[in-house]
Design brief:
alpha/beta, Rossmann fold, seven-stranded mixed β-sheet, 8 helices, 42% helix
């Protein structure tokens, strides 16, 4: 999935690690939300994901976004300026707390779209998953960033609790590091087979990561399209 031109323009100059495919995926998921819950992101950094989510939901149900990040470094002022410059600050509630302390900030709202991109150690990712995923409505979406071998904590949680889970359908890998799936009460055997097939695609794609800088850009783009087509 390629990012819409308007999205790319708004993201220009916002530092971050989301690929075009990943930002476009967040935009599309936010656009598809229907209003059964709010949008929550864990880990905002300088707002690249926040802006993607906000612009997407404005094309749909215009849901509130809770952006959870303690901003312990110098990123906070840049985050605020970036969402202001993108024109989405009225869409975003900033929660300047560690995620493990922030669940109360969203009140009793259910969650329709959850994006996990906080502390990447296994215990912290697992805690984020355990705290927030139960609040995701059935049919809602969970996206996790940095689910590749460079980030073993996030990778382990995604592979254990999404690709191999009985509670997610349509799990897929989005280059360069994102895993996305839809929460369900119980998936089918066919769902689990497709999720495992997507896991195999992800693991195969990871093999190219150590040498990707040596792969010509046209071949990289073709490989990314192939990853999407195979899922």
């Amino acid at each position: 999935m390629s990012a819409p031109t308007a999205l790319r323009e708004r993201l220009a100059g916002i530092e971050g690690w989301l690929s075009d495919e990943e930002s476009a995926t967040l935009y599309d998921l936010a656009r598809r939300c229907t209003g059964r819950g709010v949008i929550v992101e864990i880990g905002s950094f300088k707002g690249r994901s926040t802006v993607s989510l906000a612009l997407g939901t404005r094309e749909g149900a215009s849901l509130p976004i809770f952006a959870i990040d303690p901003h312990r470094g110098p990123s906070y002022e840049e985050f605020r300026e970036n969402i202001r410059r993108a024109g989405v600050e009225d869409q975003v509630t900033q929660v300047r707390q560690a995620s493990q302390e922030a669940l109360a900030a969203i009140g009793d709202h259910p969650i329709e779209l959850l994006f996990i991109d906080g502390n990447h150690t296994y215990d912290m990712v697992l805690q984020d998953f355990a705290l927030f995923v139960p609040r995701v409505v059935e049919g809602g979406w969970v996206a996790m960033h940095d689910t590749i071998s460079s980030f073993p904590g996030s990778k382990r949680v995604a592979e254990q609790l999404m690709y191999r889970s009985h509670n997610f359908t349509g799990v897929r890998f989005v280059p360069s590091t994102m895993t996305v799936g839809r929460k369900v009460g119980a998936n089918s055997a066919a769902d689990r087979l497709r999720n495992r097939a997507s896991l195999a695609v992800k693991q195969t794609a990871e093999l190219a990561l150590p040498v990707r800088r040596r792969i010509p850009p046209p071949l990289q783009r073709a490989s990314r399209r192939l990853v999407g087509w195979l899922q």
